[in-house]
Amino acid sequence: MKLPLEKQQAYKQYIKDLMYQNSLINSNYGAGKIEGLKEGMERGMEMGMEAGIEVGERQAKVEIARNLLKQNVDINIISISTNLSVDEIKSITTIKA
Description:
By secondary structure, the chain is an all-alpha fold. It has one domain (about 5-95). The chain has three helices and no strands. It is rod-shaped, with a radius of gyration of 33 Å. The protein starts with a helix and ends with a helix. The longest helix is centred in the middle third of the chain and has 66 residues, at about 5-70.
């Protein structure tokens, strides 16, 4: 069965429109995927930096506590000064520098 010329042209235009819509969807998907990856990487970097800062702060507190212990400062004063628990400070005495 053969379509009339007018319907053939309409069908060809319909196919072109579908292909155009498909290309728009694909290009937006790709752009969205790239943007998502970029945001994910940025958030990962932020989280890594935050974790690194926390580790560094903890190490500084432990080092201060260790130095105060060497000076025979009372463990309760060290705890108040460093915000480390007494148990954490006691564990420092068993960890070698």
